[in-house]
Every structure is written in C-alpha cells, then in structure tokens.
Amino acid sequence: MRYFPTVCPRKNICGLEYTLRVRPRFYVPGLDATAACVPLPDDEAEHLVRVLRLATGAEVEVFDGRGGLWRAEVIESGKRSASIHAIEAIAAAPEVAVPLTLVISILKADKMDDVVRDAVMLGVTGIWPVVSDRSEISLSTVAKSQRVARWQRIAVSSTKQCGRAVVPVVAPAQGLASYLNEPTSSVRLLCVEPVGPPLMGGRVLPVQAVGKPESAHVIVGPEGGWAPAELSAAFAAGVVPVSLGGRTLRADAAPLVALAALLTTWSEL
User: Fold this and answer.
1) Could you tell me the residue range of the domain that residue 51 belongs to?
2) For residue 39, which of 80, 93, 94 has the smallest C-alpha distance?
3) How many distinct structural domains can be found in the chain?
4) Domain boundary among 39, 66, 89
5) Which residues contact 122 (CB under 8 A, 6 or more apart)?
6) 1 inside domain
C-alpha cells in the first residue's frame, strides 16, 4: 500500500485534530486537468463535503477513469458542491498487461457485489453479467432492480480503493447464448466444475497451463453450475474449458480464484 504525507485534517471523538495519511481520491469522468477550476460530480462533492468534511486547501487525488491521475487541491467547498484544481499528474497502480474481462453468471444476494469489488482490485478491465439456465434471477428482474448501475458504482469505489485510475465497465446484463454468439478476438476460458455433466468438448486445461494471450474472457457459472446444453453451446462457440482443481468452490469464490491463478501464471499479479 502507498502512503502519502499527512494532508487531511480531521477530528477524533475527543475533539483532537489528527490527519489522514492517504490523500482521498475522487472520480471525475472527462476531467480537464488544464482547467483552473474543476467541479466535482454531485456524489463525489457530497462525499468530500459531508463525509470527509474537507476544507479549501486540502490536498486530494482525482482520476478520470481512463488512466489519468492527478494530485489536486480543493479550491471550493460549499454545502453541496466542491471544486478542485489539478496540480500535477502522478502515477497510478499499474494495469494488467493482458486485458481481462470477467463474464459471470449473476449471483444471488450481495455475493455479486463482493465479486465485482474484488475482481476490480485484481485488475479486470470489464465485467459482463450474464443470465444462464440455472441463474436464480431473470434478465427482466435485473433491469428493473437497477443492479448494473449499482455494480458500476461498486466498480468505481473499488478502483479508488486499490489505486487504479482505469474504471472497468460493467456491461448490461445479457443471456449466455447472446454472449456466446458475439464475435470476439479474445480467448474465452470457461471455468468448469470438478464434478458435473460429461464434457462434450476437448481436453480440460488446468488453469496453470493456460498460455498468456493478447486478451481473455474468463467465464464463470452460477451457484447451480452449467447446464449440459450450455456446455455444448460453449464448446461449439470455441471456448476453452479450464479446471480450477479438484475441489468444489463456492460460486463467489470461483471467479476470484480463476483470476488470481491466471494472473499468477502469467506473472501479472
């Protein structure tokens, strides 16, 4: 973890002033670092003003979500708004050399939130939620619940926390069949269960044997696993079946194990 000079004055429960050791980070899409005054988006301004209670002159970091990160100073802190001035560009956490997209069958409850958060920290460049035969949620329910928007907010928050300056995009949810029909130049790696229906494709690769590609999609199934028809369709579409070992993993653990194993194999972690 990186530490910075103490720059952010706060008070503890005894009223004694102390300082934070890490500069707070704020997401400003489309940031123009040459502008003398950059207003923060409403939600970011609210966090600066009402949660962190930073005053004019406080030093912060701002990033544009596309790789740009700047040291900045708060030049206006009102009741509901805040503005900053970018001082200098600084280095963000390095991005993974192999663009990785996590294609994940939507999980129930808050498990999906946790997977999105941790996948961003591991360095994915995109998250594509899909609904498969054994998913416990429908596409219409996902659309009505605004879950994709929530996952995008979680992705932004996780980007702040891990030091990246590129915000992964959470794509609109789609059916697995629709995803498989989309053309892609990326290698598609389908994580298969150690105990499940007979595979109708070729040999299953251990995750450690997957060569380093130009880009990859990591496809992980739901709590109930893949249906036989889905496996057949996936292999017909040219996906590569990958094994994560002989132990059965929880649906929310499997994507993180897969990502960590691949990144370690490719010397990217």
Assistant:
1) 8-89
2) 80
3) 2
4) 89
5) 256, 259, 260, 263, 269
6) no
Q: Which of 66, 64, 65 is nearest to 33 (CA)?
A: 64
pTM of full prediction above 0.90: no
Rounded Cα distance, 64 and 253, in Å: 30
Using the 3D structure, point to which of 30, 62, 89 is the last residue of a domain: 89
Strands 82-89 and 38-39: antiparallel
User: What averages of pLDDT result for each successive group of 10 residues across the chain (269 residues)?
Assistant: 43 49 90 96 96 96 97 95 96 95 93 97 98 92 91 97 96 96 96 71 84 97 92 93 92 96 94
Q: What do you get for the CA distance between the two ends of the chain, in Å?
A: 14
Residue keyed to tokens 């980007």 = 159
Report which secondary-structure segment, H or E, holds 131: strand 126-131
Per residue in 57-94, pLDDT tens? 999 999 999 999 999 999 999 999 999 999 999 999 99
Q: Are both 22 and 110 inside the same structural domain?
A: no
pLDDT digits (tens, 9 = 90+) for 193-227: 876 656 655 578 999 999 999 999 999 999 989 99
User: What token pair was written down for 150?
Assistant: 């929530």
Look at residue 2 and tell me if it is in a domain. no
Identify the sign of the CA torsion 89, 95, 98, 101: negative
> Same domain for 20 and 112?
no
Same domain as 158, residue 249: yes
